[in-house]
Specification:
By secondary structure, this protein is mostly helical. It contains 11 helices and no strands. Keywords: Membrane, Mitochondrion, Mitochondrion inner membrane, Phosphoprotein, Repeat, Symport, Transmembrane, Transmembrane helix, Transport.
Length: 312
């Protein structure tokens, strides 16, 4: 029996629309779920006070307090830098996964799950060059309102900086590499997420109905597959996301701890807050990641860029 050929890898004119699709998917997804992402960051960063008090009691409580104190646009603090950098981030992630899947496909056209996991992990590793500074800057903007509320309660003043002021401060105090604070935690989260997400998505997507002519998966099935895979992967790596968020938060409230490494952060959270703390913001993160990746995969597979460029 003749070997099945490998699937063609996107290159030249085929690669450009894949990159554009990744960018469009990222922008749409971030615009839809950003307020939830802000709530997730604040829930993950809050610690229990000496008397057991909490700044936010739940997702709804955080929404209400943030909206009441900062208004509608306050829910989108830090979204500008995220929307700017999400284009290259999603393009790298999705395109690299396709590329690695191609090179890891066997001569008979098969791609075992273990190789799919390697492809996903490598794609996750590639994206951290963009993800780390994007997440660091986003977190400072998202968490500023929480720090301001703490300062106000203590009778202190706290000036919420603009994104450019945050960038200038980081570069002035820490240099260019300061933008990559928490890169180890970011890599651990994104690589493990991609190891789970991409093989699971590919499996679920292949199980769906196909167009009898083009063999393409319909939009709605890619969306469901992306949501389901994103949900499960997000929950699996939430502990690493909590550690990453804590380590990348540069400005702390007066009673909050600093962390010197991933292990130091892990031990302190476990010691002072218990195992449940690693799942802070977990429900919120699932609500963020599920539609974000559902939208991303659906847009990517529908091929909006191909229509825009007249390739379909």
């Amino acid at each position: 029996m003749a070997d099945k050929p490998k699937p063609a890898i996107a290159q030249g004119p085929q690669l450009v629309p894949k990159i554009i699709n990744g960018g469009i998917a990222g922008i749409i997804g971030v615009s839809v779920v950003f307020p939830l992402d802000l709530v997730k960051t604040r829930l993950q960063n809050q610690t229990v006070g000496p008397m057991g008090e909490r700044q936010y009691k739940s997702i709804i409580d955080c929404f209400k307090k943030t909206f009441a104190s900062e208004g509608y646009f306050g829910m989108y603090r830090g979204s500008a830098i995220n929307i700017i950098l999400i284009t290259p981030e999603k393009s790298i992630k999705l395109t690299c996964n396709d590329m690695f899947r191609y090179y890891l496909t066997k001569a008979d056209g098969s791609l075992p799950v273990f190789r799919q996991m390697i492809a996903g992990g490598l794609a996750g590793a590639c994206q951290i060059i963009i993800t780390t500074p994007m997440e660091l800057l986003k977190i400072q903007m998202q968490d500023a309102g929480r720090i301001a509320a703490h300062a106000k309660a203590e009778g202190k003043e706290f000036k919420q900086a603009t994104t450019m002021e945050v960038i200038q401060k980081v570069l002035r105090e820490r240099g260019f590499l300061g933008l990559y604070k928490g890169i180890g935690a970011t890599a651990a989260r994104d690589v493990s997420f991609s190891v789970v997400y991409f093989p699971l998505f590919a499996t679920l997507n292949d199980l769906g109905p196909k167009n009898p002519v083009t063999n393409a998966t319909p939009f709605w099935w890619s969306f469901i597959s992306g949501c389901t895979s994103g949900c499960m992967a997000a929950l699996a790596v939430n502990p690493m996301d909590v550690i990453k968020t804590r380590m990348q938060t540069l400005t702390k409230a007066s009673h909050e701890m600093q962390y010197t490494s991933i292990m130091d952060c892990f031990i302190k959270i476990l010691k002072y807050e218990g195992p449940k703390a690693f799942f802070k913001g977990g429900a919120c993160r699932v609500m963020v990641i599920a539609p974000l990746f559902g939208i991303a995969q659906a847009v990517y597979y529908v091929g909006i860029a191909e229509f825009m460029l007249g390739l379909k």
